[in-house]
Amino acid sequence: MAYHAARGKPYLSVSWSDWRQTGAITRLCEARRNRVDEIFAALGLKTFSNSEGRYLLASVLASAQRGWVFPAFIDATAFAEQQPVLLTVNVTKESPQLQSLISQLPQWEYEQRQGQVFDISRLTALIDLDELKTLAPEFIQRIYALIFPDEFGSTSGQENALLQTITDTVIEVLKLEQVDTAQPLQNYGLDSITAMVLATRLEKRLGQPVKPRWLIDYATITALAAHLQTQEASV
């Protein structure tokens, strides 16, 4: 999705709410499935059966809609009541400078993995140290790792190789220029089909099982790498 959007090419990305009879929700116990139904109902949405899902998919494919699509059965009254909450949930309070820094982090990390030494002037050109302290801890850790790579953590060469293999494969399968290892893969257009392709390709390259559902359960490259490392150690 990101690849095509950046190039002005037409694309269709479908994001689903939960299918009642298929997918992640089926791994929950009945009580938790009912709780999911209650949460969806409060938002004006609902889970749906396979037949209802097929109807929604056929409707999407038959329409001229392109871009990002969220097919769903909506309770208009409940949805309208929740709309202000849904629209403000992702509002960011970071300054434009901080937002620019966050957007550039993946590129800086990629360059460092390629052997380039990070120039701290690229950081100080955007923000001062006082403003840096307002970032979330995960971003502060990532920036510290850029500045002091030899002092940060105890990641082994094997773990680095695993992380790099996953990163390269994600970029290849999802047709990206770069990827943030701390961002959910679904933000880059991962869906059920590309999850199967990605899992199969990773299995071949890593020589160990990779289940498609792990790409959802461990949604970021960093989390997936940590899980695969644990799986390999337990074999």
TrEMBL record:
Q: What is the designated name of this protein?
A: Carrier domain-containing protein
| SMART domains listed in its UniProt record | PKS_PP (SM00823), PKS_PP_betabranch (SM01294)
UniProt domain Carrier: residue ranges: 157-232
PROSITE patterns for the chain: CARRIER
Entry keywords, A to Z: Phosphopantetheine, Phosphoprotein
Q: Which PANTHER family match?
A: FATTY ACID SYNTHASE, SI:DKEY-61P9.11
One of the record's GO molecular function terms: fatty acid synthase activity
Leader sequence residues? none
Taxonomically, the superkingdom here is Bacteria
Keyword Metal-binding in record: no
Q: Name one Pfam family in it.
A: PP-binding
List GO BP terms, alphabetically. Answer: fatty acid biosynthetic process
Q: Which InterPro entries match?
A: ACP-like_sf (IPR036736), PKS_NRPS_Biosynth_Enz (IPR050091), PKS_PP-bd (IPR020806), PP-bd_ACP (IPR009081)
Phosphoprotein keyword on record: yes
SUPFAM superfamilies referenced in this protein's UniProt entry, alphabetically: ACP-like
